Amino acid sequence: MLSRLTRSQAVAVCALPVVALLATAVFAPLPFSLAQPGLTADVLGKHQGTPVITVSGAPTRTTSGQLRMVTIVATGPDARVSLGDVFDNWFRPDRAVMPRDAVYPSGNSVKEIEKHNAEQMQQSQDAATQAALKYLHLSADKVKVRLKLADVGGPSAGLLFTLGIIDKLDGDGSGGDLTGGRDIAGTGTIDAAGKVGAVGGVALKTQAARRDGATVFLVPKAECADARSELPKGLRLVPVTTLNGAVDALRALEKGKGPVPSC
């Protein structure tokens, strides 16, 4: 058949399958999620009208400054992401293209994922309370902490929850605020022993933090390189690996004395 066509006709006929494949690739769903900077919330204050941290069984302090937990917003687990979407977002500093399995557990339904995220948040809150009370040498039998942050899931607010509890109960330990009156943001998981873990998405989280006024950002040390990659002007990175190290760094910032680690 091709021998009876002109050269231009033959090229056109051969090109049709290629064009069809390219069109399919552009519009076919791909296993990616698109992410961008999300909300931030001051754990020392209120979120949606409700105090984030409520303590009973021990006196609390009036605090100044802010401790902001930060989030990213990603397309839903059932969202269709095409090649065109990937190209549109790949080179934007305020967007990220991430493997869907890195954002959501593979093979789970939307309801299962929401349940998983809620369970992770609860575990994070429990670990934060244990780590804070252990740091302050307070008994969980006497001091009760309630943490509430609506519409946020996952474990990445653990470090900020812990610091918020400490600031509410003890400040810097000598009458001052742990924040030093600054707007401080950060991210990181926490376990009951006070170990800080990596979370992912830090390059987007630093942008959310600076957008909402933070000047200092606590980042898991293992994620320093990612945090530096799109670091907004005016935001200082402070790497941490443990709760003790995070408190020491904040005290050094507050008093202007002692070393403050940097990425």
Concise description?
With 263 residues, the chain is of the alpha/beta class. It contains eight helices and twelve strands. α4 runs parallel beside α5 (158-169).
Portion in strands: 15-25%
Reading off the top of the CATH hierarchy, the class is best stated as Alpha Beta
Structural class: alpha/beta
* Morphology: globular
Give the number of helices. Answer: 8
Largest sheet properties:
6 strands, mixed
Question: Please, could you describe this protein's structure?
Answer:
The protein has 263 residues and is of the alpha/beta class. The protein has one domain (37-73, 107-255): Ribosomal Protein S5, domain 2 (2-Layer Sandwich). It is built from 8 helices and 12 strands. Strands 6-1-5-8-11-12 form a 6-stranded mixed sheet. Strands 2-3 form a two-stranded antiparallel sheet. Strands 4-7 form a two-stranded antiparallel ribbon. Helix 7 links the parallel strand 11 and strand 12. The longest helix has 26 residues, at 110-135. It is globular and about 55 Å long. The model is unreliable at 9-27 (pLDDT under 50). This is Lon proteolytic domain-containing protein.
